[in-house]
Amino acid sequence: SLLQEIRPMFLFLLFTFLSKCVAQELADNPSPESLTQDTNHSVLPTPWVEDGVTHKDVYKLGVKGQYATIPLRTDGYDHLSTFCYSSVPLSIYMFWSSASMKMDLPSNNYQVYIGPNVTSVSSLAQASESAWFYSQLPWRSKEFKLSPFEDVCIGVQTMEEYTITLQWKYVNYMMVVVTLSGMALFWMAPTLCRNTFFHYTTGISLGLLMSVVLLTYLAQRRFKQSLFSWVGVAYSFSVYLMTRTWFNIKEYMTEQYIHLLVGYVLVAGIISFAVVYRMGPPSNPRTINLIQWAMQAVSLVMVVMSSYHQPASLLLSLTMITWAAIPASLKSGVNTQIRKRFFKPQVKLLSEDEYNTQAHAETKKALEQLKNFCRSPDSKPWKTVTRLRSPGRFAEFIEGSPHLTEAEVMEYSHWDYNTDDEDDTDEDEANEAATDDNMD
Known about the structure:
By secondary structure, the chain is α+β, with helices and mostly antiparallel strands.
């Protein structure tokens, strides 16, 4: 179909275009230097003035490989240090670029505050110290993802010694994989949602990742409780546990917890398979359509979130939606017109001698194939003979006689000769009539 022909071409052109853009930017426009150089030198704190207020212990990391080392506090109190990154202009060449700050700290005794400037970071730190309850994220991360196109400051409050380094990737291959995976999922959703293997795989995966939420849902149905009762708190706690486990999965993959993790995967996987097997693949067309639309919605979110260049990724998603909304008949007609105008097939016409030679050779070949078939047991010759007017002639043909008799050849030749004479006579009469009309 047209869609199957366009998809590989579209993906190839998109990947080639973006790759060439990145290569051209690296070769012709290496600025800013922070994108191509790896300096690996330490940065010292500098005074930072915002809104008339001078902030201390602020480190500006703007070059790839720059790092800042914070010494151990001897007074026994936590200290706030701020690390700021300056953005670069939006560029299509940096569609898959990413930046991050990685902190090297052995313990988890620290607090992190993220804001667009130093003032916001200081405000968050003060609110954390003054508030009797300050919500923290349920996971701890020592690598902070940054958008290359936005100014951001990260405040780290701790009393221990640590090092924080700026990392810059011109092409983040994980983002490339997410973009291409989202596009492939969008185009393959109509096929995958009807695939039995994909149905079982998705069901087992959901059972492994959302087992606590599914158990809460089953408990709600069993006790017939409203969502605004204790079940709402159970849902919130389930999501909290699931999120905390996912973001701290590395801690559970150690030798201390690995046997528990393997046991959970086996038990949850078997139960999920049993449930999916009992329910069976969906057969209702409307259910299949809902699954397809949900998969395509997830794929669009993957494409949008796979790049920090939000306008470009959003435009790519809108282009995919627009192309999918165009009727197949219209795309097929446009494809046909393009092929006719720009990709005309080179057809070689045969001369009269070539036509006669080819017709003679193909006719002889077909007659030989017919003879061989009639001689084989598969043709059922006795049954065929009972249906023929001249069984004797059929037998002679199988033994090697010509398929035309001499009388038929003479009749055809006589008919061809008479037809040519009649055509010549008609042409002569027409010419004489035209001559008489001109004389009149």
